[in-house]
Every structure is written in structure tokens, then in C-alpha cells.
Write a structure and sequence with these properties.
Structural class: mainly alpha
Order of helices and strands: HHHHHHHHHHHHHHHHHH
Shape: globular
Strand content: under 5%
Number of strands: 0
Largest sheet: none
């Protein structure tokens, strides 16, 4: 899979230079302080009256002007595709550079001959371009072919992606055993997402024999690599295991880890655990905070829970306008609650007007389309 290339912006380079200047200043001050302290013991040993110490001139570090006259940052697209020097040959990194800048047709032209010559990185990039339809007509079957070649040469990212295609039957016939085999290849290379995906066949008994202990082992390895999906799944396995492997404390711990990494379903579940005091100390105020994080992230179940919090004054001060507002958004997104319906029906028009304003405020972003299908890439 293509590796993202990062560049330091002008502001970040400026920050590093200023940080270095400040570090030098602190270092100078520290040395001077040590020199001053070293004279103290001698004064005590002689028991002589202290004499006025001469003032020490502390050198002030010179400020370096790191600004530029033109602070306009050019778009990586406007900067144009990567240019080769005379006699320089394109390599896979050159193709990736064009890909990262959004010049997909150029990336395709650079990667094709390299991929045909057996360059696994270029083959992986060809898979990405064909799968997403970037610079070429979308063709997931051809994407699978390129991923297969790259995986055969040891590219873990391609093996991971090919496993997903076999799992979903995209571009290839659905084959959960082959999917698990490719996940295994990527997992052996340390890919956290592959470890998570390999655990699922063991949980379900499809593509691998059912083995809840093995699934837990793989989930733990992926969770320790900070994969939020694995952390959430591991927490659920401790909370909902069917073979006596339950541990509410461990379940709450891993659900909480996933929640802190921004996993909205984990945020809802952790809020419920906090509210109920299951596997963790009960704290209704903190539970409300988690519901709000997930609700503002677009999770309708969290919106419904937050509406209840406001309606019943559990974890937040009772606020019927806020309760009705979140209930209206959640209901629009398909989560109904008859108890909240009755509460909303009993509210006066002034409160409902506030509720509608809140709903409109959040629904403008929470219910907006995630992408513009008419927008073209460069």
C-alpha cells in the first residue's frame, strides 16, 4: 500500500528553529546556575563574611529572523507533478510522490512500467489506483491482480487489502479462507489491522476453525498496537464472551481505550458502562460527557442517550430543550424513543423553539453529505 510522505510546513520549520533557540538559552542559564552554586560551599567553609558578588553578565541569545517575505504556501497540486533531472530514472517513490500530490494519471504512467518489471511497491500502487479508479477506470478485478502480485513478493499492505477483497467478494469471488490466509500474511508482518481481521474468522468459525481463545490472543496483540477496532472488539469479547472468559474490568478498560482514540461506538458503550458502573466506577456526569462526544461525532444512539440524560437530569442538569433537540436529531436518523416522544409532546412552544434551534445547529453538520460526488480530483 502506498506510504504517506510528509513534509514540514514553513510554520513547523519556524517552530523547530525557535525551539532550538529557546533550548540554547535554557542550557546557558543552567550552566551559569551550576557555576554560581559551586561557589557556595567555599564560602561556608571559610566562615568569612559574604562579600558582594560581581554581577554576572548573562549572554542573551540572538534572535534569528526565520521569517520570509512571501508566506504564501503553494498547493501540492499547483506545484505540479514531480520532475526528473536529466538522466534520472523514475522509481516507485517518484510514482508515489505524484500520487500524494494528486497527479494520479502521472502516477499511473510512472508506476506501470515499474510494476510490469516486478517492483512490488509499484504493483501495490497500481492496485490502489485501479481499486479507487484514480487516473484510470475503476476495475477491482485488476486491482486484485496487482495486489496478488505485490503480496506474492512480500508486500504486507497488499496482502491486507487483498484479504478484504476476498472477504467482501469485491473484484473476486467471496472466499473467507483465502481472506484469512492473506490476513495471516499481513499479520505475520506486524500489521495491526490484519491481526484484528484475522481474529474475526476465529470468532465466527468461518475461514478458520472456531477458537475464541485464539481470537482473543490476536485481538490483544492488535489492541496493544493501538488499533481502535481491535480494542473495541477485545472489550466486547471480555464483556460478552459465551465460554466463561468474561472479565468486566478488562472489558471496560479496552472499551475505554478505544473510546479515547475516537471510536464512536466505543464512546457510547463506555458511557453506558460508566452510567451503570459495570467494570468501572459509576459516574453519571462522565457518562454524559462520553454520550456527548459520540453524539457530536454523528452517532444517533449517543444522541438518544444524551437526550435521556437531559430529560431525566442524570449526569447533567435537567434541560428539556436540549433533550428535545437531541431527540429530534436522533429520531430523524432512525432512533426512536416513545418515552421521549411523550415528553416532547408535553413541552410548550417556547421550549420547542429552542429545541428546534439546537437540532438545526447540529443537523447542518451531522446530517450533511460526507462527500460531493460531483467534485473531481486533479
Amino acid at each position: 500500500m502506498p506510504k504517506k510522505r510528509t513534509r514540514l510546513s514553513h510554520h513547523k520549520r519556524t517552530g523547530h528553529l525557535l525551539a532550538a533557540t529557546l533550548a540554547a538559552a535554557l542550557s546557558t542559564t543552567s550552566v551559569l546556575a551550576q557555576q554560581t552554586d559551586s561557589t557556595a560551599p567555599a564560602a561556608i567553609e571559610t566562615a568569612e563574611p559574604e562579600k558582594a558578588k560581581p554581577a554576572i553578565d548573562v549572554p542573551v541569545p540572538a534572535l534569528v529572523d526565520v521569517t520570509t517575505r512571501d508566506k504564501t504556501l503553494r498547493s501540492i497540486v499547483d506545484a505540479g507533478p514531480p520532475k526528473l533531472e536529466e538522466g534520472q530514472k523514475a522509481v516507485a517513490d517518484t510514482a508515489y510522490d505524484a500520487f500524494q500530490r494528486g497527479w494520479f494519471l502521472t502516477a499511473l504512467g510512472l508506476a506501470t512500467p515499474l510494476a510490469e518489471q516486478g517492483d512490488k511497491a509499484a504493483q501495490a500502487l497500481m492496485g490502489v489506483l485501479h481499486e479507487a479508479g484514480l487516473g484510470i477506470r475503476q476495475d477491482k478485478a485488476k486491482a486484485a491482480d496487482w495486489y496478488r502480485l505485490a503480496a506474492a513478493s512480500g508486500d504486507a499492505g497488499s496482502a491486507m487489502q487483498l484479504g478484504q477483497l476476498y472477504l467482501l467478494g469485491t473484484g473476486v469471488d467471496t472466499d473467507k479462507k483465502k481472506a484469512a490466509d492473506y490476513f495471516q500474511q499481513a499479520a505475520d508482518a506486524g500489521n495491526a489491522s490484519a491481526l484484528y481481521n484475522l481474529a474475526l474468522p476465529y470468532q465466527e468459525g468461518e475461514g478458520r476453525p472456531f477458537d475464541e481463545a485464539k481470537a482473543r490472543e490476536l485481538l490483544e496483540e492488535a489492541a496493544k498496537r493501538n488499533d481502535p477496532e481491535a480494542q473495541y472488539a477485545l472489550g466486547l469479547s471480555y464483556l460478552e464472551a459465551q465460554t466463561g472468559l468474561n472479565d468486566p474490568g478488562q472489558g471496560a478498560f479496552w472499551i475505554g481505550r478505544a473510546a479515547r482514540r475516537g471510536h464512536t461506538s466505543a464512546q457510547v458503550y463506555y458511557g453506558i458502562l460508566r452510567f451503570q458502573g459495570k467494570g468501572v466506577d459509576p459516574n453519571e456526569a462522565e457518562a454524559a460527557d462520553w454520550f456527548e462526544r459520540a453524539a457530536t461525532g454523528g452517532n444517533p444512539v449517543a444522541m438518544n442517550r444524551l437526550a435521556r440524560v437531559y430529560a431525566y437530569g442524570r449526569g447533567r442538569e435537567q434541560d428539556f430543550a436540549a433533550a428535545a433537540g437531541w431527540h429530534l436529531i436522533a429520531r430523524t436518523l432512525g432512533v426512536s424513543d416513545f418515552n421521549l416522544d411523550r415528553i416532547v409532546e408535553s413541552l410548550d412552544e417556547t421550549t420547542m423553539e429552542e429545541a428546534r434551534k439546537l437540532a438545526e445547529q447540529y443537523s447542518a453538520t451531522l446530517m450533511a453529505p460526507s462527500e460531493d460526488p460531483a467534485r473531481e480530483t486533479p
